[in-house]
Design goal:
The structure holds two protein chains of two kinds. Chain A is mainly α. Chain A has six helices and two strands, in the order H-H-E-E-H-H-H-H. Chain B has a domain of 45 residues. The chains are: A mainly alpha, B mainly alpha.
């Protein structure tokens, strides 16, 4: 889902950069204000794990592929602010060191994967009662990636010279991610179930 | 304790990553939904033309793709960890 250079028009690029700066800036402010700095090491370890997990591309029979994104998982384990910072670290390093995701698209990629995916994961996990938290984690992982895909489709569609392309990009991105996102949901729920059992104090 | 396990798992993921990121991707052809959407719009990826990094697309100059992918993975993991821990110090973590 990493948008490369050349796909976004300057306006979409600029708007998403502004959103990234405001949201990530606010996330750093909240981490400091809520004295969450001591969880930054955990956030860094999770970010490193997500970076590695994103390198595993799974080819799907039929000609498409996916990789784990991990935004919802970060939101569930770390909360929205540290979760956002963890994914921002991953995307920042991927962009600058490996050119995976364009420099002109960093704002959009952060918006999709470090903001939308993280918040959806966090909200779905939170709203489910204790007994159904794992199901909430599954839904968070699945719908987080689906919504991130839809938002990515909108960014591509409105970057196009032809506005009628918008329904095409949104349906391609939303449809595929709704399908492939079930795997993200299963992995997210599996990791959350493991942590709940072995280290429940790590999940707020 | 869980952090130690997470780091070990991360290293294992990096070591096995070329199976999925290079070998299977080359065999089947990596094609994610974003590529499908871009094709429908006729968009052109200009990353290679404006590239600035020697580690473009998780490769290391002079090394075969599989080995380069693993080295690139470790480089990325250590930079992410270093940046995160550095930030935590700057922000006043004990």
């Amino acid at each position: 889902m990493h948008i490369p250079d050349g796909f976004l028009d300057p306006m979409v690029s600029a708007v998403t950069y502004v959103i990234m700066i405001i949201f990530c800036g606010y996330a750093f402010y909240k981490v400091k204000k809520e004295k969450l700095q001591d969880k930054m090491v955990l956030a860094s370890v999770l970010a490193a794990g997500i970076f590695a997990a994103q390198m595993l591309n799974w080819p799907i029979p039929g000609g498409t592929s996916l990789h784990f994104v991990g935004g919802a998982l970060a939101g569930i384990i770390l909360g929205p602010w540290l979760g956002c910072i963890a994914l921002f670290l991953v995307l920042f390093v991927q962009c600058l060191v490996f050119h995976d995701g364009g420099i002109t698209a960093l704002g959009a990629n952060v918006f999709n994967m470090a903001i939308v995916d993280v918040i959806v994961g966090y909200v779905f996990y939170k709203i489910f009662p204790e007994k159904y938290k794992i199901f909430g984690a599954f839904l968070g992982g699945w719908l987080g990636i689906t919504l991130a895909g839809i938002v990515c489709g909108i960014e591509l569609g409105i970057s196009s010279q032809f506005i009628f392309e918008l329904p095409v990009t949104v349906s391609v991105m939303g449809g595929w991610h709704a399908l492939l996102g079930t795997i993200e949901g299963i992995i997210t729920a599996g990791v959350v179930a493991y942590i709940q059992k072995r280290a429940p104090h790590l999940i707020k | 304790m869980i952090s130690k396990k997470a780091i070990i798992l991360t290293f294992i993921l990096v070591i096995i990553s070329p199976i999925f990121g290079v070998i299977l991707a080359d065999m089947v052809g990596y094609h994610e939904p974003l590529d499908l959407a871009a094709e429908s719009l006729g968009l052109e990826d200009i990353s290679e033309e404006i590239n600035w990094t020697p580690f473009f697309d998780y490769t290391v100059p002079g090394l075969p793709d599989v080995i380069g992918y693993i080295i690139a993975g470790f480089i990325g993991v250590f930079i992410v960890l270093g940046l995160g821990i550095g930030l935590s110090k700057i922000m006043g973590s004990k």
